[in-house]
Amino acid sequence: VAQATHDRGGWATDAPIDRSEHELADWELLTDALAGTLGRHGVLNVDELRRGIESMPPDEYEHASYYEREDLDREGRARSRRARSEARRVRYRSGQRVRVAARAHEGHHRTPGYVKGKVGYVERVHDSFTNPETRAYGADGLPEQRLYLVGFRQREVWPGYRGHTEDRVYVDLFEHWLEDVE
Amino acid sequence: MRGHEHGHDHPHAPITNGDEPEAAARARALQELLVEKGVLRREDVRQRIDWLASRTPADGARLIARAWVDPEFRARLLADARGAALELGLDPGPSPVVVAVENTHAVHHLVVCTLCSCYPRALLGPPPDWYKSLPYRSRAVSDPRGVLAEFGVRLAEDVELRVLDSTADVRYLVVPRRPDGSEGMSEDELAALVTRDSMIGVAEPALPAPVTS
């Protein structure tokens, strides 16, 4: 499955991590605060904001600084919100093996490419949350989707992985991305 | 008469901080527009700025220090970090759920958000630039031991490393291991040992360097 530009986990890179500290500039704080205030007022939710960021041309995404990516007027528009629905039932139990659907998805979604098609096990059953895939496009994200923390053996995710055989990577995944394992 | 009513049309220099990217002017213009249209009040934005600027890793450190000295609180923190934060009078933030995970001699946790920048901001403040950088987001999942070495943390071979990719509504806070030799220290002294990076999992708390007089 091809990975979108923002879906960064496991991209081949030798680039060092720039660890220099940086105080947020006024305009960066303002941008953050605008996004937060628009969210609290129900004008622009975080998935719409993310969808806007993810729609940047790859070259611009890679070169923009963090807050340059948050171009709020790219996606902002007013709408009403409905109340949240009841939490849904739980399909998978802690310890159960699950496979991540290997399907491609063009739109905004929160399943990283590096675990698509991989088998893991449920480490933790979280609450249910609104579905980012519909919420990013003006809908209310209902019905809510159950969220699970799923653990994967690093050696099964990255063929060349060195390190402890028990090393794992854990990813929060929505139920509609999980499949039963025979 | 001062200000904008002096009847000529030279452009006023906006109040800026010198070399700013285009995005800065856009953010300011957008704020003006939203206020003018009545979508947001200027006070709402100001309060949000103040809230953001007031968040620091010191809050997270208080949680950790209390957990180090009080085993029952530690259990409550691991079971319900939000409730534990409220118990100490801290603001755990709005809706996203906070989950605390504990480092031990046998297990080490490292937190990343490969898709964007999810981070327990209410308890730690805004994430550092490196946390949002593309190399960290790429390598923290595929080569976490290499990343830790880059940050100066050399994990023993037999320590199990757990990387948490916070892709959705949950935010993860690492409870680092209490350093050996800190037995006699007070809760406040312990809190001072807990760094932001240790609560992300890229550092381990250390005792202060001995002062030679």
Would you mind describing this structure in some detail?
Chain A has 182 residues and is of the alpha+beta class. Chain A has helices spanning 26-40, 46-54, 58-63, 132-135, 154-157, and strands at 97-100, 119-129, 145-153, 168-174, 178-180. Chain A is built from 5 helices and 5 strands, in the order αααββαβαββ. Residues 75-87 of chain A have low confidence and may be disordered. With 213 residues, chain B is an alpha/beta fold. Chain B is globular and about 60 Å long. At the A-B interface, α1, β2, β3 and β4 of A face α1, α2, α7, α8 and α9 of B.
Output the keywords.
heterodimer, A: 182 residues, alpha+beta, five-stranded antiparallel beta sheet, 5 strands, globular, B: 213 residues, alpha/beta, two-stranded parallel ribbon, 4 strands, disordered N terminus
Topology summary:
The complex is a heterodimer of chains A (182) and B (213).
Chain A: H1 26-40, H2 46-54, H3 58-63, E1 97-100, E2 119-129, H4 132-135, E3 145-153, H5 154-157, E4 168-174, E5 178-180
Antiparallel strand pairs in A: 1-2, 1-5, 2-3, 3-4
Chain B: H1 22-36, H2 42-54, H3 57-69, H4 71-79, H5 81-87, E1 97-102, E2 107-112, H6 121-124, H7 129-132, H8 134-142, H9 144-150, E3 160-165, E4 170-175, H10 187-191, H11 196-200
Parallel strand pairs in B: 1-4, 2-3
Helix pairs in contact in B: 3-4, 4-5, 8-9
